[in-house]
Amino acid sequence: MTDTYNGVPDTHFTILDPSFIGGAWKEAWADYPTKCPIFHSDAHEDQGFYVMSRYEDIMYVLRNPEIFSSYRITIPPIPTPRPQIPIEIDPPLHRKYREPISNYFAKANQSPREPHFRQIAASLVDAVYAKGECNIADDLSYPLPVHSVMSLLDIRVEDREKLRNSLLNMTHPPGKEEDPEGAAKISLESTMWAYDYLRSLLPDRRENPKDDVLSLLCAIEIDGEPITDDDVLDYAILIAAAGFETTAASINYGFIFLAQNPDVRAELVADPSLIPNFIEEVMRFEQPTKGLSRTVSQPVEVGGVQFSVGDRILLLYAAANRDPEVFPEPEKFNLRRSPNRHFGFGAGPHVCVGIHMARLEMQVMFEEFLKRIPNFTIDESRILEATGPTYAITSLPATWPVK
Ligand code: HEM
Question: Tell me: domain 4-399, CATH 3.30.1490.270, correct?
Fold first, then answer.
């Protein structure tokens, strides 16, 4: 017999369960939206948390930030000393942080960046092409978004690798399982290094602002007052980390899908104008950011469940993207799916600010790769994957024939 909590099934569910990797989550979560749209888990937090997976329930939560706070955005939460800006800030303050950067990331402002992103993607593929093999994660999927986002922040090329490693170690320190204390130390040292490094850039960006995101953040004023250095750094760190980990994951999952589905690959090679559709369907089908969370700030009922102030809810975006009420034949990858209003980038006021940039990066990478390498295979036995709010692929060995 199943235990219940507040009238819904009580479980030990955690998004971090390693048995969900290798795509196993797709089958495991397939029935959630229709058969068990809201359940409880006793994992991670004192009172546990609810898991929501019906598309319309999640959309309601995302569109009502005055009832569902974004603080803390993950379960378990990342223990930052201050709320992460802007992702953990609620309206009306959220808008004051977000508006100043919205235009910079708007769709219309991406096209001037395309040649630069394309040149990075092309040179990464050119660097490995003749070898007939590479590690897609190390050689392609991470370097493109790292260089793209760090060039927007105008970080010196020679400092980018160290900053990237520090940002990765903040959230994914090595040895988390075997040596949690050592890992926590690495995470703390990396966080301090990243903050100190970015802090050292601020005086110049404040005095000599340029056309870069860090200068833009330095210029933000809220109610007539400039934001503090800590705010600027929190914001910059979120943009840098959110900007590359998610994009790298999305590119990696796209490559795995293409290796496993040569028919789709052949269609894209024959007609590259389908690549934007491919990207949207990969985001729906693979949903690299599996789930993020909200905290109830007013009593409310959703889907027949009464929630109380302080309740935590994991919004299982990946399951909702396969809700048959919204996506016909959700388990089928449909290159021509329309409409395709997936939760790949979230929705509502916190919808991903980098959505157009991420789409562009993915597009130039798949175009430049498939143009040169139409056939490739991936050694699935050597894929390394890690769970988290965003699942990550850290190793993706690929080979292809070289003429
Ligand atoms: C394919 C790549 C990406 C994915 C899958 C992704 C995913 C997401 C998701 C799901 C959210 C919504 C969070 C919520 O539930 O409230 C989000 C927000 C955000 N993303 Fe992305 N993201 C990607 C790329 C980027 C890039 C390239 C940047 C910046 C350079 C970026 C910066 C942000 C920021 C700043 C927010 C917070 C927005 C707010 O709170 O108003 N992301 N992202």
Answer: no
